[in-house]
């Protein structure tokens, strides 16, 4: 599968982070829009599989198809740039600044949200025949997910917020591992196999992914979920984004950089 050694693929991670900071606003937004749209479609697909089969594992096994598609086409998720963009600053690449990192994160957030919202509207139309009928079984399921993962957390107060945040951390530990996995091989099959594994883990475990939620919760509101837009932002999206940032950067980006780029000197045996 043309596997690259860690020192090689971590250097590619830094290169990727630098390229994202130098990318034009136009290209950053287009790539983020398409990433959000494809991942949203994959989420709708996985929920459809869950409802139709009654087996969440099958949906989790199939969900990574969207993640693989978008990364093979060179599109960007917020969860990925949380991990990659800061590495260019850590490595002191020319022109890499924290202002550039924040610019990249902001543009990717906007693009991802727009793409996911587009698919949310499309799927809400499909599930209700253009809002002329009550949501079908899949639409009802999406609405119930929105309720459980907003007001469900709120019902537990601070403990619910902590749980939400930790689920966001765990999510991007796995998702960013998937992002890095795409750099571990030079073959399409190698990239797909490597990406598939951590994405399967995150989805089946019910961790919180900020871009998937950009689809689930707006569509849930359109499909009759009993929660508000404020519930969505306060009791899901904002804590999830923060958790995703901490998880991806601390458990994947900074860790790999510290041990494979800034490698400590080897011990000298007496």
Structure characterization notes:
This protein has helices spanning 6-22, 25-53, 56-62, 64-72, 78-90, 98-128, 137-148, 151-154, 157-181, 188-204, 210-222, 229-260. The protein is mainly α and 270 residues long. It has a single domain (6-259), classed as Glycerol uptake facilitator protein, CATH 1.20.1080.10. α2 (25-53) runs antiparallel to α3 (56-62) and α11 (210-222) packs antiparallel against α12 (229-260). The N and C termini lie far apart (40 Å).
Mean pLDDT: 96
SSE order in H/E notation?
HHHHHHHHHHHH
Assign the CATH class: Mainly Alpha
Uncertain runs: none
Q: Give the tally of β-strands.
A: 0
Shape: globular
Q: Mind summarizing the main beta sheet?
A: none
CATH H level: which superfamily? Answer: Glycerol uptake facilitator protein
Helix proportion? over 70%
Approximate strand percentage? under 5%
Architecture, according to CATH? Up-down Bundle
Would you tell me the structural class of the helices and strands? mainly alpha
Taken together, the total number of domains comes to: 1
The third-level CATH topology is: Glycerol uptake facilitator protein
Subcellular location: Membrane
InterPro entries: Aquaporin-like (IPR023271), For/NO2_transpt (IPR000292)
Family: Belongs to the FNT transporter (TC 1.A.16) family.
Main location: membrane
Task: Kindly list the characteristics that best describe this protein.
Glycerol uptake facilitator protein; 270 residues; mainly alpha; globular; 12 helices
């Amino acid at each position: 599968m043309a596997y690259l050694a860690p020192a090689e693929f971590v250097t590619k991670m830094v290169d990727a982070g630098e390229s994202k900071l130098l990318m034009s606003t136009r290209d950053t937004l287009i790539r983020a829009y398409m990433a959000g749209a494809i991942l949203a479609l994959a989420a709708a697909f996985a929920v459809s599989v869950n409802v139709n089969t009654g087996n969440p594992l099958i949906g989790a096994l199939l969900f990574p198809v969207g993640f693989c598609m978008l990364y093979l086409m060179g599109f960007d998720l917020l969860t990925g740039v949380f991990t990659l963009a800061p590495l260019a600053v850590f490595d002191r690449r020319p022109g890499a600044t924290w202002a550039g990192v924040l610019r990249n994160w902001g543009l990717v957030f906007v693009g991802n949200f727009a793409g996911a919202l587009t698919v949310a509207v499309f799927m809400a139309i499909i599930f209700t025949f253009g809002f002329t009928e009550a949501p079908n079984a899949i639409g009802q399921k999406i609405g119930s997910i929105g309720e459980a993962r907003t007001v469900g957390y709120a019902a537990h107060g601070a403990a619910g917020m902590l749980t939400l945040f930790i689920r966001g951390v765990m999510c991007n530990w796995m998702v960013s591992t998937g992002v890095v996995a795409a750099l571990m091989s030079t073959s399409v099959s190698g990239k797909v196999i490597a990406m598939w594994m951590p994405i399967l883990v995150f989805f089946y475990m019910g961790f919180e992914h900020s871009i998937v939620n950009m689809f689930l919760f707006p569509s849930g509101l359109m499909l009759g979920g009993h929660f508000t837009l404020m519930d969505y932002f306060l009791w899901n999206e904002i804590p999830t984004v923060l958790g995703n940032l901490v998880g991806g950067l601390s458990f994947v980006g900074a860790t790999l950089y510290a041990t494979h780029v800034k490698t400590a000197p080897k011990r000298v045996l007496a």
